[in-house]
Amino acid sequence: MQSALAARPHLTRLCGSALRLGAISRGPARQQHRRGGGSGAAPARAFSSGAEMPLQYRPPIVVQPREKHTATVIMLHGLGDSGDGWAAIGDEFAPATPHVKYIFPHSPLRSITINMGMKMPGWFDIVSLEDIDASEDGPGLVESKRYVESLVAAEEAAGVPSERVVVAGFSQGGAVALMMLRSERKLAGIVGLSTWLPLRNEEGVISAANAGTPVLQCHGDADGVVAYSFGVATNKALKALGADAEFLTVRGMGHSAVPSELEAVQEFIKRVVPPA
């Protein structure tokens, strides 16, 4: 892996090891990045998930396209992270995808059971990472899906149809990305990195609109946070439902990101939303 990293210095700086609690699912970078302004930046939003106070969403980081905007990628970070943790890929992917806008939302603060109930950035509550099906936070998952759908709707209002929008996510964010298979808005593609399929025992995992939507899954076989077996089981479940789901095993990778994985993501984006 060292030789692969050395051969790709522009991607090496994006890839860092993920940490457990406190920042259980950090993205590949933790620096500030170029932000889009004006109409390209979504406003702050408040959504209620049944809690006493509505959850507050900060405006996402937006990396504007370098050419005419004809497609959008929404990338969701993992538990304990923020949009800043992944925003570097927008600039790194831009030369190969100059027509694509990249949006990096920030999850709201919420109480996380696995973090002793303390508040931290999260898309939904997690009770256990050993038995992910146990006590799933259905309301939190649905609320986060609704928020992502609002971002897709904003892109539609700006002239980019949902069929030209890719929703991607890492770890907990990947679970929300896979929730978007339930959306009635047809998407260009879904990317789930080091993640699992939530609410898989409920009906409507894949809507009629997204029955043929391509899915890319990537998972490290040395993942000590979200077990590799969860990724394999997710892919099996998706294929059983008729999904066009590709699965990439990343040998030796833990709960993090590596250049070869990011290159696969970039190629997927180029394939499902080519220049229009």
From TrEMBL:
The record's Gene Ontology cellular component field reads: cytoplasm
Any GO MF annotation of the entry: carboxylic ester hydrolase activity
Keywords recorded for this protein, A-Z:
Hydrolase
Q: Which Pfam families does UniProt cross-reference here?
A: Abhydrolase_2 (PF02230)
Q: Which InterPro entries match?
A: AB_hydrolase_fold (IPR029058), LYPA1-2/EST-like (IPR050565), PLipase/COase/thioEstase (IPR003140)
Disordered, as annotated region: 26-45
Has UniProt tagged this entry with the keyword Isomerase? no
Q: What range(s) does the Phospholipase/carboxylesterase/thioesterase domain occupy?
A: 61-271
Q: What protein family does this chain belong to?
A: Belongs to the AB hydrolase superfamily. AB hydrolase 2 family.
What PANTHER family is this protein classified in?
Answer: LYSOPHOSPHOLIPASE-LIKE PROTEIN 1 (PTHR10655:SF17), LYSOPHOSPHOLIPASE-RELATED (PTHR10655)
| Protein name (record) | Phospholipase carboxylesterase
SUPFAM superfamilies xref list? alpha/beta-Hydrolases
Record the organism: Raphidocelis subcapitata
